[in-house]
Task: inverse folding
């Protein structure tokens, strides 16, 4: 099991490097996040030991279980799933980056929780780039507006954008969405809003990360290619 995860990480690293070089980019600019949902602490440890840059959890429950088990020890952990406002207190201050800030109400709750703890919570805004009904996230215009108001949330720091584009019907099908995300990041960065850095562009998963890298991703989130297919049935 450990061996298989290590081999998978090695193969993904090689693919990341190929995609970066093909796009004229420095491979060191791109980080590999292990999307760890449904994988236990032991498997997460195997990915950490295999040299992923960080881990990402989707569910508060799994985060709280695996943290004390030392699943992520030595690497940053991100929150990447839908976050209910009433669970914000369990996440703020425990993760290095909340990637999935998808509405103003959530940002405000995170800011209040960070203020209580006396910390600055690093965040990304999630953009619903495919305008899908089934997904949450800001519209591109909404993300610009939110970024322009980050000074109102001084206990947060906006470091970039995250997107989960629609499931692609064909290879390369998400390239246009990745390109739009890249442009949005550049546009927001150019405004030099207070409390905004825009260094991070989180996009690309198992099926499309080389395309995301070609369009400027700095953080790919990979689950299946590291851990194998997730089993949703009984264990
Ligand atoms: C599960 C998940 C991923 C990884 O998906 P794979 O297709 O298994 O690589 C990436 N991002 C988010 C937000 C996820 O929930």
Result:
């Amino acid at each position: 099991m450990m061996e298989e995860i290590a081999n998978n990480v090695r193969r993904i690293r090689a693919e990341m490097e190929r995609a970066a070089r093909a796009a004229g980019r420095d491979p060191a600019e791109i980080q590999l996040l292990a999307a760890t949902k449904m994988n236990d602490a032991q498997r997460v440890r195997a990915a950490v030991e295999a040299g992923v840059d960080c881990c990402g959890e989707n569910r508060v429950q799994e985060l709280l279980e695996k943290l004390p088990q030392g699943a992520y020890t030595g690497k940053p952990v991100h929150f990447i799933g839908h976050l209910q406002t009433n669970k914000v207190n369990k996440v703020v201050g425990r993760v290095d980056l909340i990637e999935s800030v998808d509405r103003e109400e959530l940002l405000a709750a995170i800011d209040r929780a960070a203020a209580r703890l006396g910390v600055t919570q690093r965040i990304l805004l999630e953009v619903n780039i495919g305008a899908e009904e089934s997904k949450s996230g800001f519209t591109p215009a909404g993300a610009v507006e939110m970024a322009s108001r980050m000074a109102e949330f001084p206990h947060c720091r906006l470091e970039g954008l995250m997107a989960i584009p629609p499931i692609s019907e064909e290879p390369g099908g998400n390239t246009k969405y990745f390109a739009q995300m890249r442009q949005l990041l550049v546009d927001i960065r150019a405004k030099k809003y207070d409390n905004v850095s825009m260094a991070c562009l989180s996009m690309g998963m198992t099926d499309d990360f080389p395309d995301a890298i070609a369009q400027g991703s700095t953080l790919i989130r990979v689950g299946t290619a590291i851990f194998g297919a997730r089993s949703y049935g009984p264990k």
In short: DSSP finds nine helices and eight strands in the chain.
